[in-house]
Amino acid sequence: MILQSAPTVVIWLALGTAALCAGFAKTAVGGLGLFSVVLAATVMPAAESTAAVLLLLLVGDACAVARYHRDADWRLIRQVVPAVLPGLLIGAVLLAHLPDTLLRRTIGGILLFMVALQLLPLPRMPRGSRRAATLAGLGAGACTMTANAAGPVMTLYLVARGLDKRRFLGTSAWFFAGVNLCKVPFAAGLGLFDTTMVLRGLALAPVVVLGALIGVKVVNRLEQRVFDRVVLVASGVSALALILL
Length: 245
Hints:
By secondary structure, the protein is mainly α. Helix content is 78%, strand content 0%.
């Protein structure tokens, strides 16, 4: 892609911004995590960018769990988790067999579709909706394995459940910590991790932590509806860019 031939400083700037967004998204508004996916995918091959973002997300997950570990709705998590593993398997197959260009456009399509879904008015669903939980788990597993883009899926599901902000963040923190850890052996089996990738992730870890600390500071001060609208518009533009470039 265009930025993959850019100077090293530009590549590191893009990855550093992706790390900052990843940390912020984990402790504030998850929709911003889409920027991490888009930024990494513009400076790295699609499959490698998925692995790079995964390392950043694992650091962000640790920050989010440390902050919101007491606020999770474990009943909702238990309803979704059984369908996540089949979703991960579907995503791993796609990741292994789709060519780079097609995979990149698939990532963009997934992001754009999820952004469009978030614009629809969604009624709150009853807590015992097993079908919705299964669909959310499958979608989250497949999207997170192929594009690290399960955030919009779970946002739709948790918002429809009517969770308040604190429970939303706590439930998301524990859910994604577990899902992302499950993705590690899949990514490793696909040969996406190497020494350079791991060292790069370690170098960017402090930036993720910084983003998480900023997120903690602003989440209670920024009006949620305004921020969500800005994130949705920016995410839609980024998704279109992935599809068209």
